[in-house]
Design brief:
- The chain is an alpha+beta fold and about 280 residues long.
- It has eight helices and eight strands, in the order αααααββββαββαββα.
- It has helices at about 1-55, 60-85, 90-95, 100-105, 105-120, 165-170, 195-210, 245-260, and strands spanning about 130-135, 140-145, 150-155, 160-165, 175, 180-190, 220-225, 230-240.
- It has a five-stranded antiparallel β-sheet. It has a three-stranded antiparallel β-sheet with strand order 6-8-7, covered by helices on one side.
- A hairpin with a 6-residue loop joins strand 1 and strand 2.
- Helix 7 (about 195-210) packs across helix 8.
- The termini are far apart.
Length: about 280
């Protein structure tokens, strides 16, 4: 029994240097990761500041910063792994044997990466633009906040955050609502068949000329759009600043209703006439 105890003590005593060495590596690795994270953050901030000073597009700056962050973190983890005695050849062999699995797993990520590069190269939109992805009824829309290595972040009108994969954006129909400085405003309204088309058109023309947001030096049209079942559909088209589009549309709708009421021009409800024969 004493011999067994002495042998155990001797064994653990001989392993103490290895245990101490392992603990030292763990401490060094933690410190290296702690310092490395802060160095990476400093480098990313420095790169962002340099690119912004050079007036590089915000989306390009965000994308490059995202790529550099991923690359630097991968190098940091790789160096920490080699500090534990993991050989470069072993890492290469591991990546080689699991290459197919990694390829399948990263297929979506690679698609998003390529999509992000295409967005930055062709620049169909940039940070600050308001876009609609897909159809307006079933798609998503919002203002672009960030374009990163794999994802683009949007902010909706009610301040929700939507994260869209870059691969989805590059393969979808995207409407850039704010891509131009000016936007054509179109409003249609129905009047009863008993009301005067001439008077209604004069009112619409007057409202267009009186509103300061309407571009008076650009094309303006007032027209009869349709002779519908229960109303004559009038409309107008005019140019406004993209930033003023929604406020102008809401204001013009209100002015049209008030002006038509004052001129006794009726905006009819949908109706169906039924004729009953006595025969």
């Amino acid at each position: 029994m004493n011999h067994l105890i002495e042998k155990s003590i001797s064994y653990f005593g001989s392993q103490l240097p290895l245990v101490a060495q392992f603990c030292l590596k763990v401490v060094i690795s933690i410190l290296a990761f702690y310092v490395g994270v802060r160095v990476i953050r400093w480098l990313i901030r420095l790169m962002r500041a340099s690119l912004e000073k050079a007036n590089v597009d915000t989306g390009v700056t965000q994308f490059l910063a995202s790529i550099c962050k991923v690359t630097l973190y991968a190098l940091l983890v790789f160096n920490i792994a080699t500090n534990f005695g993991v050989k470069e050849a072993s890492i290469a062999a591991l990546l080689g044997t699991s290459g197919l699995t990694l390829g399948l797993g990263l297929q979506g990520g690679l698609t998003n990466l390529v999509g992000g590069i295409m967005i930055l190269v062709f620049r169909p939109y940039q940070v600050g633009d308001y876009i609609i992805v897909g159809s307006s009824s079933s798609g998503v829309e919002g203002t672009i906040l960030k374009i990163e290595i794999f994802y683009t972040t949007l902010a909706t009108i009610d301040n929700k955050t939507i994260v869209v994969p870059n691969g989805t954006l590059s393969n979808s129909c995207v409407t850039n609502v704010t891509g131009k400085d000016n936007r054509k405003l179109e409003i249609k309204v129905g009047i009863s068949y008993e009301s005067s088309i001439k008077v209604a058109k004069e009112i619409l023309e007057r409202l267009l000329k009186e509103d300061s947001a309407i571009k008076s030096d650009m094309e303006m049209d007032v027209f009869v759009d349709e002779l519908a079942d229960s109303a004559v559909i009038l409309g107008f088209r005019a140019w406004v600043s993209t930033d003023d589009y929604w406020k102008t549309k809401w204001r013009m709708n209100e002015k049209i209703k008030e002006a038509f009421d004052a001129a006794e021009i009726k905006i009819p409800y949908p109706q169906l006439d039924v004729h009953v024969s006595s025969h």
